[in-house]
Specification:
The protein is an alpha/beta fold and 872 residues long. The protein is built from 37 helices and 31 strands.
Length: 872
């Protein structure tokens, strides 16, 4: 039987939530237990209820909806502030509060966490004012109907809803959830009103000489961003956005003309707005903030307003017309008129390059903006807090794909810290950057400790100008000064060293791959923190001996014969000197004097793949190490060396690594065995990291002649075979390409073609849905990659996707594996592991654009999905 709590959990999971934000209290504990039992929902604790509501608000920005759970009054009243924010900003956040038992009021109990009267309904009354639907479950049997009503109302209106659950009902039985379509079925436009509104809009815009579009903050809530883009491209006119909708229209689009914000507009967007004779405002909100104190208020006969569910222009008003339906319907009927673009191209301001500040110069806003601009990528989301940060943030030039988050309607200082936390929980693969002032930071700083707790990669840029500077501009007084803090030390405090590691150990023991990665990095940092500089340097100095000892113990059979004992110990004084080090390193166990036993690491390193890996790395690295000084003293070492200079391998061995492997059978065998085994078996295949199942169903036309997959430089076909096995039903060709020598005497299962091909040459397989390159790009510097990529670009069509399976190195705080692989590539084969910016530059240079970077949780290689650039 379902319970009220489990019913609610199921519904939250069914609407797509994967997390809910909570602060426990004795009115909600049983409810939290019930929610925690749902396998699709993770409970995320917050430091206080204001932050809890704002965290949910941020999650809804990333994820479309969110939920937060608080206790009665002391919790809910704090949460109302953040819920008010979600209302103002059009975000569907479900606020769930525990409350007194259903018999408490009738029994005239006086209760803690209440006003000390017999009235317990005041919280519901208050909730009604800040939500679009507020329900209290007075009987368990009413729970399904009321919960569905609250959630559906929130989703349809893009506003918060409130669900109050008395303590004694959280575990009370109720009906099982019915089909989720009862909650999710979308509302539809009234067809007649829609058609009439489109006709009026066609004649409004058709009669104007200089029409243009203005995007507003409600575009996202109305899920109308795509339809707005369609309309923009159908008219060809200029498009401005309001500050609250920055990033809702791609800023690199040729029709983008900047942020319209009166006198503080960017790219002179205000000149165009003033010049235009007909502006279609989609989802716009004009407040004192967004109009710069009513100086930029758009009204009158030249304004056509398309709101979330109604349309108005002088003389007309149509209800029940949904914005997305209206915009895409209009896109199909509108006449092309690019007069505003023609005019704009005459006075479009040239981008001004902010000069780099001198290293010793006082830090100024311009330099901060320049540096933040430099780190923005298509995968970034920039949060800008109320205060100076609004004005700095709005100036940023966003790469397509980057998102911008602002809370301009509610304007609560401190919002950005918890909201970015919730956002990063909802979108863990995006790079979240926060620009926040010192005053704002002090309001909600506690949630930084949750960022630390979950190890979320959020970058906070704190502008410490010693107080409420924007307030100083408005009205100065000593109340605008605040206590200065040592902000950096505060972060160290939150980091809480060992506690943090203990927590990670707990999560790691549940098999969580993310915690496992974080734990390793944390232990590494802890080790560095504990070591004296002398300790660190000594550890590294002696480390080569460890590799040499392992090589000896593998080569002379000590480790293999120990592994063969399968757990039984071996006694020998002969090998004592080597075994002391082997066991210290953890490659085997010392169980008594001269007595050794194999462990899991012994077994692993004795497998052919790992033994070969030890050989490959140790022998080659040490030969390079032995000759690197002479290389540096003669030719020097350039980290990004292209052709012409010897790489360290060539210097040590007299030929490139590829030539060496071609002529040295023993090393070639070791290399191949190592490559086949270097990933753990637990690693997700690339076609799950990349949502291949979903994409293929969109891409496949079902024709047998279509080329579905080309595995370029795919070796002996391991990946294409696994892919075919995963998708046996997919009609179409799958092709393995590599050099003839690699493909020699290879046979593959039915449904896969083998094609000899050198990827530096003309690509014969045209118009494939997917070209897949696994660890090819990281073997070459940019000039060579460009040659390879250009062959693919020439073969691709608009529907083709190029998938590059390689590391995406973090710009700062990179992890062990990519860091080591990168230096290995530099030493062994003059190659590189790239950062996101380097990938972007490389792909752009050949006319490709990134669609999405798919990153697995365990920190292995990402799948970088790109396509032909739309504006080449
Ligand atoms: C207040 C504002 O340090 O930014 O750049 O120094 O202005 P700047 P800070 O974060 O200071 C913010 C401060 C006090 N506004 O200047 S904008 C009033 C206010 C508010 N929200 C809440 N309380 C007061 N906006 C919750
Ligand atoms: Mg300040």
């Amino acid at each position: 039987m379902a319970t009220v709590g489990s019913y609610l959990a199921t519904r939250l999971a069914q609407i797509g939530l994967r997390h809910h934000f909570v602060v426990p209290g004795d009115y909600n504990l049983v409810l939290l237990d019930k929610l925690a039992l749902n396998p699709h929902l993770t409970q995320v604790g917050c430091a206080n209820e204001l932050n809890c509501a704002f965290s949910a608000e941020g999650y809804a920005r990333a994820h479309g909806a969110a939920a937060c759970v608080v206790t009665f009054s002391v919790g809910a009243m704090s949460a109302f502030d953040g819920i008010g924010g979600a209302y103002a900003e059009n975000l569907p956040v479900i606020l769930i509060s525990g409350s007194p038992n259903t018999n408490d009021a009738g029994a005239f109990h006086l209760l803690h966490h209440t006003l000390g009267t017999h009235d317990f309904k005041y919280q519901l009354e208050m909730a009604r004012k800040v939500t679009c639907a507020a329900v209290v479950i007075d009987r368990a049997s009413d729970a399904p109907r009321l919960i569905d009503h609250a959630i559906r109302s929130a989703l349809l209106a893009s506003k918060p809803a409130y669900i109050e659950i008395p303590t004694n009902l959280a575990a009370a039985p109720c009906a099982h959830p019915g089909p989720i379509s009862a909650v999710l079925a979308p509302e539809k436009s009234d067809p007649d009103s829609l058609a009439a509104a489109i006709d009026v809009a066609v004649s409004f815009l058709g009669n104007k000489l200089k029409p243009m579009l203005l995007a507003g903050s409600k575009l996202r809530a109305a899920r109308a961003e795509k339809a707005f883009l369609e309309l923009a491209e159908a008219t060809g006119c200029a498009v401005a956005v309001m500050p609250g909708s920055k990033s809702f229209f791609p800023e690199q689009h040729p029709q983008y003309i900047g942020v319209y914000w009166g006198d503080v507009s960017t790219k002179a967007a205000n000149n165009m707005i003033d010049w235009s004779d007909g502006i279609l405002c989609a989802g716009t909100v004009f407040t004192d903030y967004s109009t710069v104190g009513w100086t930029a208020d758009l009204k009158g006969p030249q304004i056509f307003t398309a709101d979330m569910d109604h349309i108005s222009v002088t003389g007309y008003d149509f209800s029940r017309v949904l914005l997305a339906d209206f915009l895409s319907g209009l896109a199909n009927k509108i006449k092309y008129n690019d007069a505003t673009m023609v005019e704009y191209s005459r006075f479009r301001p040239n981008p001004t390059l902010q000069p780099t500040a001198e290293p010793e110069a006082t830090l100024r806003r311009g330099e901060v903006a320049r540096q933040v601009q430099g780190i923005l990528t298509p995968n970034s989301t920039l949060f800008v807090e109320t205060g100076d940060s609004w004005f700095n943030g709005v100036q940023m030039d966003l790469p397509d794909g980057a998102r911008f988050e602002i809370e301009m309607q509610w304007g609560h200082i401190g919002w950005s810290v918890p909201s970015s936390f919730g956002y990063a929980v909802g979108a863990p693969n995006r790079k979240t950057i926060v620009m926040v002032g010192d005053g704002s930071f002090q309001v909600t700083v506690q949630e930084v400790s949750q960022m630390v707790r979950l190890n979320l990669p959020i970058l906070i840029i704190l502008m410490n100008n010693y107080g409420y500077t924007i307030e100083v501009e408005i009205h100065d007084g000593s109340y605008n000064n605040i206590k200065n803090w040592d902000y950096a030390a505060l972060i160290e405090t939150f980091n809480a060293g060992i506690d943090h590691i203990t927590q990670l150990v707990e999560v790691d023991s549940t098999g969580d791959v993310v915690a496992h990665r974080q734990l390793q990095e944390a232990i590494h940092k802890l080790q560095l923190a504990v070591e004296t500089p002398f300790d660190t340097s000594m550890r590294l100095r002696f480390q080569p001996l460890q590799n040499i000892v392992v090589l000896i113990a593998l080569e002379n059979g000590i480790l293999p014969s120990l592994a063969a004992r399968k757990g039984e110990s071996v006694t020998s004084a002969e090998i004592k000197r080597l075994m002391r080090m082997i066991t210290w390193m953890g490659y085997a166990d010392e169980v008594g004097e001269n007595v050794y036993a194999p462990n899991d690491t012994t077994s692993l390193v004795c497998t052919p793949g790992m033994t070969s890996g030890e050989k490959h790395h140790t022998e080659i690295s040490y030969a390079i190490g032995a000759s690197i000084v002479s290389l540096i003293r003669t030719q020097g070492l350039h980290q990004f060396s292209e052709d012409g200079l010897k790489d360290p391998f060539e210097h040590a061995f007299g030929c490139t690594m590829w030539e060496f492997l071609a002529t040295n059978e023993e090393h070639k065998t070791a290399f191949d065995l190592y490559m086949a085994a270097r990933r753990p078996s637990s690693q997700l295949p690339w076609f799950q990291v990349y949502p291949a199942a979903e994409r293929i169903s969109q891409m496949s036309t079902g024709k047998p002649d279509d080329v579905i997959l080309v595995d370029v430089g795919g070796g002996r076909g391991h990946e294409v075979v696994a892919f075919r096995k995963q998708f046996p039903e997919v009609a179409g060709r799958m092709i393995l390409q590599d050099l003839p020598a690699t493909l020699e005497s290879l046979t593959l299962p039915e449904g896969i073609e083998i094609m000899a091909h050198d990827f530096f040459q003309h690509q014969p397989a045209k118009g494939a849905r997917i070209y897949y390159l696994r660890q090819i790009m990281h073997d070459w510097m940019d000039s060579k990659c460009q040659i390879i990529l250009k062959q693919l670009v020439a073969a691709m069509d608009q529907n083709s996707r190029l998938l590059i399976d390689d590391y995406v190195m973090a710009p700062t705080g990179a992890e062990f594996r990519p860091i080591h692989m990168d230096v290995c590539m530099m030493m062994f084969c003059r190659a590189i592991e790239r950062t996101e910016t380097q990938w972007l530059t490389l792909l752009e240079s050949v006319g490709l654009e990134i669609v999405q970077i798919h990153t697995p949780d365990n920190g292995f290689e990402s799948v970088i999905e790109s396509k032909l650039a739309t504006r080449r």
